[in-house]
Design brief:
Layout: H1 5-36, H2 39-43, E1 47-56, E2 61-70, E3 74-82, E4 87-95, E5 98-103, E6 109-110, H3 113-130, E7 141-150, E8 153-161, E9 168-173, E10 179-188, E11 193-207, E12 210-220, E13 223-235
Antiparallel strand pairs: 1-2, 1-13, 2-3, 3-4, 4-5, 5-6, 7-8, 8-9, 9-10, 10-11, 11-12, 12-13
Length: 247
């Protein structure tokens, strides 16, 4: 059977267009890695510590937080929540598929499997934003999805897909190539429903040679859930494995 030349031409054109799109997506990733600080400096943040403060909404709390992270899936948060009525000290630990939460002077509680997985989805997506070397990992499929305005600035969208992971969409400022917004559809551990999580990033600042978004807003299903301001982010040469055990 002879295949019409017009069909062959369309197939070739589609293949060339896809290849060009892949090249453009990879070029955007290369540009953002360079803009953030470069591969060598980013590689130092395979483990790191951070301090931040912010607000949670519904119920409303102020919080201060110290975080230890060992990428890709080990995290510990020491959190102090407060409002006019109460002050609470909480520890949350995530170690792969296992996770625990502990309120001061009470016994640690293991999080349900679904909740632990949801938090790992959030961390995975945020890792791709904060440490974009992950976008170059084997098995990543990158696709450009056009331009949008974030505030009054144009941004380029990148769809990130990988087997066994949630799709993540990251928008980069067209001029600076720094991340401006990220979206992921995942479980909301409070409502126990699938919702869109939107993270907005601003006020990038150089910390330890890397440009980090100091201010972050987390919206769930279009409603503001959390604001966070990073005070410090430092690479850590070695973290005690006991940090990521049951607290």
């Amino acid at each position: 059977m002879r295949i019409p030349l017009t069909v062959l031409g369309l197939c070739c054109a589609a293949a060339l267009s896809a290849a060009a799109g892949d090249d453009q997506a990879k070029a955007l990733v290369d540009k953002t890695i360079k803009a953030v600080g470069g591969a060598d400096k980013l590689a130092k943040f395979a483990s790191f510590t951070a301090r931040s403060e912010g607000k949670m909404f519904g119920p409303d709390f102020d919080f201060v937080e110290e975080n230890s992270s060992l990428l890709p899936d080990k995290y510990r948060f020491n959190i102090e929540l407060s409002n006019q009525m109460v002050k609470i000290k909480q520890v949350m630990v995530f170690n792969g598929p296992k996770a625990w939460t502990k309120i001061e002077n009470l016994k640690a509680i293991a999080l349900p499997k679904e909740a632990a997985a949801a938090f790992q989805d959030y961390f995975y997506a945020l890792r791709l934003v904060m440490i974009p070397l992950g976008l170059q990992e084997k098995g990543m499929t990158l696709s450009l999805i056009g331009e949008v305005n974030i505030g009054d600035r144009p941004a380029i969208g990148l769809l990130v897909s990988a087997k066994g992971k949630r799709d993540v969409t990251i928008y980069y400022d067209k001029q600076t190539a720094l991340p401006a917004k990220m979206e992921i559809n995942a479980l909301d551990t409070i409502s126990e429903k699938e919702v869109q999580h939107e993270f907005l990033f601003s006020q990038h600042k150089e910390l330890e040679g890397v440009q980090f978004p100091i201010e972050m807003v987390w919206n769930k299903d279009g409603k503001k859930f959390m604001t966070r301001e990073f005070k410090e982010v430092r690479p850590a040469e070695k973290l005690d494995p006991g940090l990521f055990a049951e607290p």
